[in-house]
């Protein structure tokens, strides 16, 4: 049977082809921790196996005075911990910061064999990925590593969004992209001070003729991030890499967090960031197809036989295209159950 890869990976002659087959490992929640925070760091070994990705953060949210301590802490944790099925990622400092060169040199040299993915913040264009790609190649060769470290870019500047397609295709190391709504809001001069999520002022109102004496015109809040997530998803699909939502800063508002994560999942994202253990549980639940979705998808796959033509199921038309939609669900369910 055809797989969804047939349409995620462009087959047309001359179309961009990913050189490396990116391993499809679950990464529903990328849980951020500050390796310079001893209390947080001490909990990391117990989190192995409870989350798909643990990410040692070196960039924003780590105080300038703690940058060296965070880097050293990450090296220590990586050396002392068996990560089992959990991936280890890091977010390095920005390319125009005084810390990034030491981040890369130290991490690849000391723990390159343990690091799955390096997340690069504030990526502006392909040139930033080329720079990282070159340095990683040199450091990996020197360290004698036998598997390439993958690269994940944060989409958090207006220029980065404008260049999103070239960023995705800039290197076979590209694993995926995350939305960085806080930096992006600032860079675009948006008027929200929240870290991700919606805003009560961003809404549409029903027409005046919908109003009755008993029912004022209803308002509907819109998703501030819809446009950017949709662009990011398209660019990632075109290049066969993975799109992620990013941070949701209002830790207490688990309902709005779940809504934002679900919107991203429905639009095509494979995962999100977690800033607090309670967001891991939300992400693991949201970034997986529901039992009902899987049941329906399997029913369509079975009914479609050789995958061509059209069938009627429960009063609805299914065909080659809806089969592809269902294969996305079935494959994700299988990948997550391994
Ligand atoms: C994340 O880095 C953000 O800026 O939202
Ligand atoms: Mg940021």
Structural class: alpha/beta
Shape: globular
Name the poorly predicted regions: 1-20
What Rg is obtained from the alpha carbons, in whole angstroms?
A: 21 Å
Most strands sheet: 8 strands, parallel
Overall residue-averaged pLDDT value: 93
| First-to-last CA distance | 20 Å
The count of DSSP E runs of length 2 or more, i.e. the number of strands, is: 12
Distinct small molecules: glyoxylic acid, magnesium ion
**Element-by-element helix/strand order:** HEHEHEHEHEHHEHEEHEHEHHEEH
Domain HpcH/HpaI aldolase/citrate lyase: 31-194
Binding site for Mg(2+): 156, 183
Organism: Nocardioides piscis
GO molecular function: lyase activity; magnesium ion binding
Protein described:
- By secondary structure, this protein is α/β, with parallel strands linked by helices.
- 43% of the residues lie in helices and 15% in strands.
- It is built from 13 helices and twelve strands.
- The protein has helices at residues 5-8, 38-47, 67-80, 100-111, 126-143, 158-162, 164-168, 181-188, 226-239, 254-267, 277-286, 291-303, 320-337; strands spanning 29-33, 53-57, 87-91, 117-120, 150-155, 174-179, 203-205, 219-221, 242-244, 272-274, 310-313, 316-319.
- The protein has an eight-stranded parallel β-sheet with strand order 9-6-5-4-3-2-1-10.
- Helix 3 (67-80) links the parallel strand 2 (53-57) and strand 3 (87-91).
- Helix 4 (100-111) runs parallel beside helix 5 and helix 12 packs across helix 13 (320-337).
- The longest helix is centred in the middle third of the chain and has 18 residues, at 126-143.
- The protein is globular, with a radius of gyration of 21 Å.
- The two termini are 20 Å apart.
